[in-house]
């Protein structure tokens, strides 16, 4: 297949996602998150450009997949970058996917997803909003191209009020930067109807670490020994010591339990503390 690819994050044994296909309408992403890892493998990663001939390529791929197959949009970009407002490529993809009755997972930071509520509500779908902070100033520094948290929460509420299952990615949790917000974030997303939270600690690669050092030097100074002296390296990413990761993820889990949400962690090797039926929230698709 061509644009529908097996979701397979470098055959990482820590990934516990159910089988799914990945579809990125765009190459690169203009949300330009400081912690983003796509800069380690996509050239000019923060310059978002549409995939060439995407719609005809997708039409050909769809012929080859079975009804009910799970398609995840997107994993190396946001399906709702700024140019989507005019280009409508993601919307065209959704129209095609709906004709074959494929299940769809949307992963986004953009409230533009609400535009496609008409399509999503007729499909078997779940929307996952990433929310890392409730503070608009921190968000502006951390995810400079993405809509502020308040707009994401409003969009989340609109989707849940329309009956769509919505999950949240509290991802990444960066110790010393946003971990003090864990409980507030979970309470807020529960208040607007989210059903599940997937969370993960920050796992820097050299490029994202460099950006964190530039944007948040004080936080980076505190974190440096934790990652590079006492932590571990897994593939190309650096991990905090396991007791710290488990502590952080347990705080997210406990906040979820207190607010009636299910919880899972992403690529932490902590399946034992999950309470959800899938790590990515796709179990919520009908
Ligand atoms: S929205 Fe996702 S893909 Fe886009 S820059 Fe942020 S982390 Fe990277």
Structural key phrases:
pyruvate-formate lyase- activating enzyme; binds iron/sulfur cluster; 286 residues; alpha/beta
Give a short overview.
The protein has helices at 54-63, 84-87, 89-99, 117-120, 136-142, 149-161, 182-191, 206-215, 217-228, 242-258; strands at residues 5-6, 21-22, 26-27, 49-50, 70-73, 103-108, 125-130, 166-173, 196-201, 232-234, 237-239, 262-265. It is α/β, with parallel strands linked by helices. Helix 1 packs parallel to helix 3 (89-99) and helix 8 packs antiparallel against helix 9.
How does the SSE layout of this entry go?
Blueprint: E1 5-6, E2 21-22, E3 26-27, E4 49-50, H1 54-63, E5 70-73, H2 84-87, H3 89-99, E6 103-108, H4 117-120, E7 125-130, H5 136-142, H6 149-161, E8 166-173, H7 182-191, E9 196-201, H8 206-215, H9 217-228, E10 232-234, E11 237-239, H10 242-258, E12 262-265
Parallel strand pairs: 2-5, 5-6, 6-7, 7-8, 8-9, 9-12
Antiparallel strand pairs: 1-2, 3-4, 10-11
Helix pairs in contact: 1-3, 7-10, 8-9
The protein binds iron/sulfur cluster.
Task: Provide a descriptive summary of the structure in words.
The protein is an alpha/beta fold and 286 residues long. The chain has one domain: pyruvate-formate lyase- activating enzyme (Alpha-Beta Horseshoe). Helix content is 34%, strand content 17%. It has helices at residues 54-63, 84-87, 89-99, 117-120, 136-142, 149-161, 182-191, 206-215, 217-228, 242-258, and strands at 5-6, 21-22, 26-27, 49-50, 70-73, 103-108, 125-130, 166-173, 196-201, 232-234, 237-239, 262-265. The chain has an 8-stranded mixed sheet, covered by helices on one side. Helix 7 (182-191) packs parallel to helix 10 and helix 8 (206-215) runs antiparallel to helix 9. The model has no long low-confidence stretch (mean pLDDT 97). The structure holds iron/sulfur cluster. Residues 29, 31-33, 36, 38, 77-78, 109, 143 line the site of iron/sulfur cluster (SF4).
